[in-house]
Amino acid sequence: MHEFRVTSDSGECIDDQDYHVLVNNRMVTLGCGNNFGSQAYFLSFLVLISWLILNLSVAAVIEGLENAKDENTGLVAGDDVQGLLDAWMEYDPKATGWINVTDFICLIIELPPPFGDEELSKEWQKETKTEFESAKRKMYNKNSYYVNEEKRIIVKNKDILKILKSYKITTYETKNHMVHFKDIYQKLIKKVFLEEVEDFEISKYLKNKMKN
User: Can you say how many angstroms the Cα of residue 22 is from the centroid of all Cα atoms in its chain?
Assistant: First the structure.
């Protein structure tokens, strides 16, 4: 690093120069300065400026991300998709991609919005065991209901058919009328964004099986 000092023509530096010396040297100061102090000042200046610029840059990036998040009007976020995957793994722990129809109904009831349905959850899932037992006693024909003791869910078979038709979920006869994750994910996305889907018809097998 260069030393921060100016010398006279004779090569000597002058700490206390008078006006005549200053004029003779074309108004250039000839102070010896402090070599250690100048280097320390220069280094501290670089470090301080770099630190300030770095913090300002980080603050600008964070503010931009927060503003983008506030302005995001998307109906489905990454956390929603992850919530769907986590809930799916409960019914499909081996990650086969397949679950049965009643598991799908439980999935829809348990999922929070936007994929889940709060109205269905309030109607079919009981908050307490007392409410669940009370609802069980009111069942006039147990064969007409699907009951999940663990999750305190009670659904009429005919309502299951309505849900399948509402969500346009395809069941596969070759897979014992199970449903696939890909179909469910696509239909949930379409339902969230209110997109029209093709005409859908419940299979005769499920109609007969769930017939009240």
Answer: 69
- Taking the alpha carbons of 18, 21, 27, 31 in that order, is the dihedral positive or negative? negative
Give strand pairing partners of 153.
125, 148
Compute the half-sphere exposure of residue 105: CA atoms within 13 Å on the CB side of its CA: 26
Q: pLDDT at position 88, please?
A: 92
Nearest residue to 207 (alpha-carbon basis) of 161, 159, 154: 161
Residue of 148, 162, 80, 169 lying closest to 116 (CA atoms): 80
What mean pLDDT do residues 45-71 have? 79
What is the reported pTM?
0.55
Q: How far apart are CA 16 and CA 26, in angstroms?
A: 16
pLDDT digit string, tens, across residues 78-107: 678 888 889 999 999 998 999 999 999 999
Q: What are the E-state strand segments in the chain?
A: 98-99, 145-148, 153-156, 179-180
What domains are there in the chain, each with its CATH number? 1-33 (no CATH), 78-210 (1.10.238.10)
